[in-house]
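Quick question: what would this complex look like in 3D?
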Amino acid sequence: MTEYFAIFMGVALFILMIPVIYRIWVGPTPFDRMLAVNVIGTKTAVLLVIIGTLFDRVDMFVDFAIAYALLNFVSAIVVSRYLNRTIPLDQMEKNERAAKN
Amino acid sequence: MNLEFSYFVPVLADAVNLESSFSSLQFVGIILGVLGLFFFVGTAVGMIRFPDFYSRMHAAGKGDTLSTMLMLAGFGLVTMEDLSVGSWLLFFKIMGVVLFLFITCPTSSHALMRAAFEDDEMPMTEKDLKKPKTRKK
């Protein structure tokens, strides 16, 4: 019963990831692509717990899910900070130096 | 299905009638998982059908957070087959993942949206609807 439910949920998650991958492929802006990558990464944490249910080793796979969620969060923050920088880096450093003096 | 780690931890709740609590917990878990799948269907449909970035962000940010939390909580209940200490520890670990995602998913959505807004990505207005539909390359 548990295994059938886990297999059903995993297959449904994989099928529903296809529209999100479409948004990565044709996304007009880089932010769309990053948002879709974020959604897929969050769902991968769920998929890891499902794999753990199938292998009867959930206690080990939950740690992987925590690590994956943390990496996903850090990557989303870093990419949004990188895209947020609207002026070039040397210009920004010059402005900071001018503000100090 | 026998849980292997239940041999290694002391079982405190032997006296509890396992059969009744067992199946009802799994039933609640399956309902939560299917509900989470329903919200993920909403996210996937919104990601392909909505016209501009901010409405897609609306679909993805909310539906993603809620569906992930519901599915993880459902699997935490489904994997609890007896009421031993190991099962409770596992359940609280999964609820820790749920708490972590509850904090970080809206944070990353907010950061992405602020980055888009400061990068002059404007929301769709009524003027854009009146333009002929030609896709920019």
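Answer marked as accepted. The longest helix of chain A spans residues 58-84.
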